[in-house]
Specification:
alpha/beta; Glutaredoxin; 177 residues; five-stranded mixed beta sheet; 5 strands
């Protein structure tokens, strides 16, 4: 004969606690999975990467006097992606000039290279930067070239794009003018 007595409070509390523990473990596993899938951890030894909101004295000095914002393009004379991007940089400067935008275009080259070769490459491609500066890329967390950074006159990074840009990336940069 079966008893129709309700479960004891002790068993009910234990079941509830076990269910809550299972839900918490599942939630933690889901968070870890999503984080690793969409925000993979940086590989050990990977260089730090510049992010929006960071501020650097070297970038403040790169912005031409009187300008409120500049698009700083970190390039290297030996970078084929930089060379492949020269037509876009020319288009960018041409668009800026046509629109009368106050955003300055600054070429940043690594301190270990002379300014002359990179300036010649820009000029040979018809790209006329407003300024060419030598910067130790590690001090501004440039992970590789080319890297474009929209910065204000205090050296604060407003936006950043890394690598040779696809069409949507180029359109996004053009909107910043």
């Amino acid at each position: 004969m079966a008893s129709d007595t309700p479960p004891t409070p002790k068993k009910s509390t234990l079941d509830t606690a076990a269910n809550i523990a299972i839900i918490l473990v599942c939630a933690i596993a889901a968070v870890v999975l999503v984080r690793n899938q969409f925000f993979p951890p940086r590989p050990p030894g990977a260089p730090p990467q510049v992010e929006k909101g960071e501020q650097f004295a070297a970038l403040k000095q790169a912005v031409p006097a009187g300008a409120s914002r500049a698009l700083v393009v970190a390039v290297s004379p030996t970078c084929h992606f930089c060379n492949d991007s020269l037509p876009f940089y020319k288009h960018l400067v041409d668009q800026r000039n046509q629109q009368g935008s106050a955003v300055k275009f600054v070429a940043a080259v690594p301190t270990e290279d002379s300014k002359a070769p990179e300036t010649a490459k820009f000029n040979g491609a018809g790209v006329q930067p407003d300024n060419v500066v030598q910067i130790d890329f590690s001090t501004i967390k440039v992970p590789g070239t080319p890297t474009l950074m929209l910065v204000d006159n205090n050296g604060k990074v407003l936006n950043v794009w890394v690598g040779k840009l696809d069409d949507s990336g180029e359109k996004e940069v053009l909107k910043t003018l």
